[in-house]
Amino acid sequence: MATTFKSGFVALIGRPNVGKSTLLNQVLGQKVAIMSDKAQTTRNKIRGVYTSDEAQIVFIDTPGIHKPKHKLGQYMTRIAQKTLNEVDLVIFMVDVEQGYGKGDQYIIDMLERAKTPVFLIMNKIDKIHPEELLPLIDMYRNKYTFDEIVPISALEGNNVNTLLQQVSSYLEEGPKFYPDDQVTDHPERFIVSELIREKILHLTREEVPHSIAIEIDEMSYKKDRDVVYIQAAVIVERASQKGIIIGKSGGMLKKVGSLARQDIEALLGSKVFLELWVKVQKNWRDKESQLRDYGFNEEDY
Ligand SMILES: Nc1nc2c(ncn2[C@@H]2O[C@H](COP(=O)(O)OP(=O)(O)OP(=O)(O)O)[C@@H](O)[C@H]2O)c(=O)[nH]1
């Protein structure tokens, strides 16, 4: 009997650091979402595409589902809420080591408003004793009627295949949205901006990282010099943050640029000229369209 091909969009949500990027990387077999011990490293949606013989799952990495503290947070929350209604399935991930908190309740309140099926993924089971798992499952069952509850270790890969099978079983018959070998949709600009952000996160230990965004102003191949020229803006919300990122005599920005350039060169396999600048932008709402526009234009390259 011929089986039908299934496909659909799945939103991956959860509090910062529960392991969403780690799961995506595990599923897709390569580093697409940048990981960091610091919360909130992935601000934008990444679509990781998993394709098997039976199904295609398009993952939407949806960070920012938490109580907004500033404009960018509000923007993200709005996008997140919208996403929950548009996808075919929501995966709500929790860290079994972290207690149930206000952040989780906030997400569950958002889920109550969506009609989409919801899986609860209990991640990091490698960190607890198996006996501790059952009471935790009961606790979450009392909070919300999840369609499935799947304990996994995203880091070690335990139960990840089962999860993929279960996700596929919830999807409806559908087309292959992306070719088999595509793991991310328009990855270059996104990954370049994430690499720059990652360097800032690692080099500055200030409050700054939580309110920055990276905007790629230009990314083009310069034939005469045989380099990829990238101009990117580091956008901050306050002037004081600008000073921290630029650093003494521009030292911090130079360091960020140099480390990011090395990684980008490795990613693109060509020489890179990276120009970074910092701008203060108070009103994030004006940035909505640009934040959405991570499309990589072949012609610029
Ligand atoms: N022991 C263990 N650690 C894990 C597991 N999954 C993720 N981690 C660790 O948890 C930390 C956070 O993981 P991320 O994947 O960056 O978390 P995230 O949810 O994507 O975080 P944001 O990007 O801030 O939304 C990293 O140090 C991971 O190595 C797991 O299954 N077991």
TrEMBL record:
Gene3D superfamilies in alphabetical order: 3.30.300.20, P-loop containing nucleotide triphosphate hydrolases (3.40.50.300)
Database matches in InterPro entries: G_ERA_dom (IPR030388), GTP-bd (IPR006073), GTPase_Era-like (IPR005662), KH_dom-like_a/b (IPR015946), KH_dom_type_2 (IPR004044), KH_sf_prok-type (IPR009019), P-loop_NTPase (IPR027417), Small_GTP-bd (IPR005225)
Cellular compartment(s): Cytoplasm; Cell membrane
Pfam families assigned to the protein according to its UniProt record, in alphabetical order: KH_2, MMR_HSR1
Record's GO cellular component terms: cytosol; plasma membrane
Start and end residues of each KH type-2 domain: 204-282
Region (G4) residue spans: 123-126
UniProt keyword annotations, A-Z: Cell membrane, Cytoplasm, GTP-binding, Membrane, Nucleotide-binding, Ribosome biogenesis, RNA-binding, rRNA-binding
Keyword Lipoprotein among record annotations: no
Region: G3, residue numbers: 61-64
Region (G2): 40-44
Record GO biological process: ribosomal small subunit assembly
CDD domains assigned to the protein according to its UniProt record, in alphabetical order: Era (cd04163), KH-II_Era (cd22534)
All copies of domain Era-type G, residue ranges: 6-173
Keyword Metal-binding appears in the UniProt entry: no
UniProt GO molecular function: GTP binding; GTPase activity; ribosomal small subunit binding; small ribosomal subunit rRNA binding
Membrane topology: Peripheral membrane protein
G5 as annotated region, ranges: 152-154
Positions contributing to GTP binding: 14-21, 61-65, 123-126
Positions of the UniProt region annotated as G1: 14-21
Assembly and interaction partners: Monomer.
Family: Belongs to the TRAFAC class TrmE-Era-EngA-EngB-Septin-like GTPase superfamily. Era GTPase family.
Functional description taken from the UniProt entry: An essential GTPase that binds both GDP and GTP, with rapid nucleotide exchange. Plays a role in 16S rRNA processing and 30S ribosomal subunit biogenesis and possibly also in cell cycle regulation and energy metabolism.
Protein's recorded name: GTPase Era
Organism: Scopulibacillus darangshiensis
Gene this protein is translated from: era
